[in-house]
Protein: Phosphodiesterase
Amino acid sequence: MSDIFKPNGPAHTQSESKIRVSPHRHELVRQSVCRWDFSAHEFTDDELLLCAFEMFNHAFTMPEVEEWRISPGQLTDFLFACRRAYNEQVPYHNFRHVVDVLQGVFYFCLALGVLPHFDGKAAPRPKTGSTASLSKILRPFDALTLLIVAIGHDVGHPGVNNAFLVTLKAPLAQMYNDKSVLESFHCAAFSQVLRKHWPITQTVPNMRRLMIESILATDMGLHFDYMSQLEKLKQKIKQDKGMKNWDDKTISANRSLLCTLLIKCADISNVARRYDIAAQWTVILTDEFARQASLETDLKIPTSLAVPPVQGSSIALGKSQVGFMKLFAAPLFQSIADVMPEMNFGIAEVNANMAIWANLITECTEKGDRPFFLEKVRNSLYYQPSSNGAGSSLGASESRLYDFNDKQRTNGGVGVLHAPISNGGDYSGDSRIRKASQAYQEQGAPDLLGLGHHGKEQLKLLKKMKIFSTSSEVYPHANGGGIIGKGADGKSSGSTTPFVTIKNFFSCFPRKFSD
Structure:
């Protein structure tokens, strides 16, 4: 994560480490990025880089965005920097997830006609021809901005949710007053990457404002606020009988709202993908939330998960998915389709997936629950996590094509945890956060931040969790600087794989850790 911590330092130039993809796989990538059945799990890390490159490069073909174009070499360097800014030890909120979100945004923009037709062999779904669609107020500028937001919206994600940080009174939570903690951090951290690798994006006020608004919108704790705004927009369209009489100010405000809603859709689009693809994402998010649950148990603090994990139950998994889709995904995708009918494919997939999960619940209720369902889904993953932490992804014949990628995978495995959890990330409401924090204090919270006697005991537990590491680069501090972690030999870590250092995760003040 060095790009985040040295905003004034020289930019990395990794163009010499080219994206290693065979011609056959390159063509497959081009065909895949313009399909809604895109599965990020089918691609290596370098192929994911190529996916991102192809999508941005296509956006650059629009003459309206010429002012913000960067060269192919600069784009490659930017994408490498973005990949370095994610922690591959985090099962879900990693570079694979953000490329998936990027592709979701890309496909939306193709379907809405905001991006030109892609010359890959698969074409986007045709537009409905509805004159009522709000898609006509979106501009190429908005499409490019949303693509940039997508690749950086989770930069530096530690694999725990906002409520966890608030409960522990982590420095990030204190810095951002317990509000949209991670999302605010992602904005600040991603801006450092952009300043170094795509500086013009930080000099255009409208672009920067839209980036910040869109990243903050991914906080699921604010979901119903955005749904309320969307409902008001629908009512206004009905009242005004369209948007013909809207002034520039009204158009601009609603354009910004649409952009934030499209990012929200893309961020939870895994439940709107084809079922087998959606199920893969479910398993991975399950693993990440189970790690947090285990950490909370070890720390003896109340859970900050909206639906605590249930060990090895397909019924619990199905119920969590149906619950998430009914409460969050289906209303969002349906309302978006109401104002932009070109997006109808999303709600159709959500409804289909809800039916499949409901059938699974019924079957398991009648015949008995079965934990092996998770294993069955895991076996279909292209990159399979292993229980001992050793990652494996490519066959022997393929691995030679991806030397650069393999070097990045040192200790890159993800542990398997059998614990279903509800999909969609952090959507704990403010009242739940306050109650969790209050309960934690009433129980006599250990002096974790001050590293008193109990705090050191807690750190021993934290170090056991693979979410964190004490031998690599760390998060930025409140003053905008950072500390490079030390390896076991006491020297600065040279690894390009980002980790979270325990000490600095829980303190913005390095002087407390001088020992």
